[in-house]
Amino acid sequence: MKHMNSEVKEERTSNKNRIDLFLVPIVLIAAFLNLFKIWTDEYANAYYTAAVKSMLQSFHNFFYASFDPGGYVTIDKPPVVFWIQTISAKIFGFHGWSVLLPQALAGIGSVLLLYVLVKRTFGVWAGRFAALAMALTPIVPAVSRTNNIDSMLVFTLLVATWMLFRAVRTAKFGWVLAAFAMIGVAFNMKMLQAYMVLPAFYVFYVVATKITWKKKIAFLTTATVLMLAVSVSWAVVVDSTSADKRPYMGSSQTNSVLELAFGYNGINRLTGNTSVTGSSHKQPAQTEQQTASSETKQNSNSSADSSQSSNQRKSSSSQKMQAPGGGNQNGMFNTGNPGPFRLFQKGLSDQISWLLPFVIFSIVGLFAGVKFKGPYTTKQKESLFWLAWLLPVAVFFSIAGFFHQYYLIMLAPPIAAFAGAGAVALWSMYKQHNGWKLWLLPGGILTTAALQVYIMSPYVSSIGAAPIAGVGALGVILALVLAVRKQRKNSLTNYLGAAAMVVLLAMPAYWAMTPIIYGGNSMLPSAGPDSSSGMGGPPSTATNSKQSGFNGMQPPGSSSGNSSSNNQMQPPSGSSNSGQMQMPGGSSNNSQMPNSFSSKSSSSKRKSGGMNAEVNQKLLNYLTKNNTGEKYLFATTDSTSAAPYIIKTGKPVMAMGGFSGSDPILTVSKLKAMIKKGEVKYFYLSGIGKGGQSDVITWIKENSKEIPSSKWQSTSSSAQQGPFGNGTLYEITLK
Known about the structure:
By secondary structure, this protein is mainly alpha-helical. The protein is built from 29 helices and 10 strands. About 55% of the residues lie in helices and about 5% in strands. Strands 5, 6, 7, 8, 9 and 10 form a 6-stranded mixed sheet that branches.
C-alpha cells in the first residue's frame, strides 16, 4: 500500500510537470495572432511611441512619462506600461516592433494564465477551451498588436487573480496583499479601469475563504489600504512636485494626476461629461469646434465645403450627440446605443460577443442547484468570481457615456473562462441525461450560432454569404442532432460535440486574423474586415479608400495641391460633438470622423500611428537649418503634428495644448518668457486643436512673421494641406 501511494504521488508530480501537448498549438496560435507582422508597424500609435522616444532620453522624462523630449507635457495615462515599453526599446533598440512587443507578449501571457486558472478547478479540457477562446477573441489580438495599454492591463489583472486564488488555497495573508497590490500596479497603467475587477475580488475572497468574519474584514481592509497606497503613489509624488520642475499632466485641466484619474480617466467615462476648459475660463467643446470650423471655412473657397458644413449642421442638431470623450448616443466610434442589449449591437458584438449566448447557458449550468446559503463547491466559488467580473464590466459598457471598442478586452477573461468551464460542464450534463440540463448544450450551440449569423450579416459584401450560411446551417444541424440523439455516450456524439465547438470558434478565429489580413490600426484598434479603419463597424461605402481614409492626409509642411474637399478633414460648422474625434489615449481631437481610417502607407512599412504619422523633410530641413539654439524645434497646437517629428529626430517639439490641443498649459506671459529665453521661435498653426489656448494663438498671429510657404512646403501651394485643414508656419523673436 505504501509503495502504491508512492507511485501515485510520483505520477501526479509527473503530470504536473509534463507539458500539455494540446496547449502548445493554442499558444502558437496566440503567438501568431499577436506577433506576426508587428515589425511592419513603423510608428504604431505615434502619440505613445513619441513618448517612448522621449523617455529614452532622460530619467526625468522616463519617470514622468513625458510626451516630448523637452519635458513640456506628459501623455494622458500613468507611466507603468510605458516604462515597460521604454525598457524594451532600450534592450532591442527603438523600433515600432520593440514598442509593440510587451503588449504582444502580454496577450500571449493572458492566454497561458487563463489556462492555468481554469484548468486547476474545472479540468484540463476546460483550461484548453478557455485558453483557445481567449486567444481567438477578436479584440484580444487586435489590441495586443498595438502599444495601447489594455492588453498589459488585462495581463496584470490576471496575475492578480492568480495571486488571489493562491491566497484562498493556501490561506496565506501575504498572497492577499500581493493580489490587491497588483491591482494598484494596474491602476498605474490605466487608472480607474483597473478597479472594475474589485467586485469579483471582494466577493470571491468573502465566499471562498474559511476564516472568521473578523479576519475577513481585517484582511480585506488592510489589502485595500495597500492597494490604494500603491495606486496613488506615483500620483502623490507628481502632484506634490512643483509644477515648474515637471511636465504638465497631459489631458488634465488642473495639472493634477488625481484629477486625471478620477475625472477624465474615471467618472467621466461613465457620465460622458468631458467639456474643454480654457486657459482662463471654461469653454464648451462645441464652441471650440464651431470656432475651428469657422476658421477652416474662411480658408476655403469651395462651395462643396459650404454644402458639406450645412449638411453636417443639420445632422448634428438632429442627432444631439454628447461631448468628445463623452457621448456616443448615436453610436460614435461604433459603440452603439446605451441599453441592455448594447453588447449585441454591431460595432461591439463582433469584437467580443461571439460566445456570449453560450456563456449565458454555461452560467445557468454551472450555478444550477446552488443554494444561496451554500455550501459551495470550489467550482461554484470560482464561477462566482468570473461572474462578478463579467456582470459589472458588462453593465458599465452597456450604459457608459464614452469608451472605445478596444476597451472591451476587459470582458475577454470572464467570457473565455465561462466558455471553457461551461463547455465541459454542459457536455457532462448532456452525456449523463441530466434532466432539463441536458438541453443546455444544444440550446447554447443553437443560440450562439444564431448570434454569429447576426453579427456577420452586415459584412456579407466583404466576406460573402457562404460562411454566414455555413455557420447558421451547421449550428442548427448540430444542435438538432445533439438534441434528438438518444445514444449520448458513444464516439459519434463526441465528434458531434467537437464539431460544434469548431463551428462556434471558426468565425471568431477569422475575425481575430483580420488585423493581419487587412491591416490593423494602432490608434483605434478593432477587429473585422475593416480592421485597418479602426472603426470596427461594417465596411465603409466609400468608393475610394484613399479619399475616405487618412491616406489622403498630408504631414505638416506638405501640400496636396488643388485637392478636393473630400480629401480634407473639416470640422462641421455649428455642430455639436458629433464631429469630435476621440483618439488613442481617450482625448478628443476636434475634428470630423471620416468614413474610415487608413493605416497603410504606400511604403512597405505601415505608419499607422495616426492621421499624421509622416514627416515633411523640407520643413524639417528648414527648421533644423534655422535653429539658433532654441530648445524646441517648433511648437504646434497639439500632439498630432508633433509626434512624427519627435519620433524621427528625437528633438523637443512643443504640443502647446497637449494631446488634443485643449489642455490649459500655456499663457501669453509664459510664452513670452519662453521666447525671450530663446526656447522656441517657430510655430506651426492649423485651423483647429486650440481649445483652452485661443488667446495664445491670437497673440502668436499678431506678433509673428509668417514664413513664406515656398521655404518649407513641399510644393508652392500657399496653404499647407494638413489633416485638419490649412496650416501656417510663423516665426517670433522678442528682444
